[in-house]
Structures are given as structure tokens and as C-alpha cells.
Task: inverse folding
């Protein structure tokens, strides 16, 4: 469960970083890279959460 909380914190950090970059109209490729990083973290979070649910069902 610690890993899940760690992923949540990382997602929030990267989301805030993207918000700041977008708010400052930072060069588009940089925003794109941060967006990809955020997408990957969310994907990892969803996969991990699904694995936990499967383990709890069995």
C-alpha cells in the first residue's frame, strides 16, 4: 500500500509541474514530455491498484 501512496504523491508533483509549465506557456515539447510522464505515472497507479484488487479477491 506504501507504493500506492508513493505513486499518488508522484502524480501530484508531476501534475503541479505540468500546471506551472502550461501556465507559463513553456515550450510545447517540454509540456508534452511532462504530460507523457504524468500519463505513465497514472497508468502505473491504475495497474498497481488493479493488482491489489485482484489479490484481495483471491
Result:
Amino acid at each position: 500500500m506504501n507504493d500506492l501512496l508513493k505513486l499518488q504523491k508522484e502524480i501530484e508533483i508531476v501534475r503541479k509541474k505540468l500546471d506551472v509549465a502550461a501556465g507559463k506557456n513553456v515550450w510545447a515539447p517540454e509540456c508534452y514530455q511532462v504530460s507523457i510522464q504524468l500519463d505513465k505515472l497514472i497508468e502505473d497507479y491504475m495497474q498497481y491498484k488493479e493488482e491489489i484488487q485482484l489479490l484481495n479477491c483471491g
Remarks:
- The chain has a mean pLDDT of 86.
- The two ends are 17 Å apart (CA to CA).
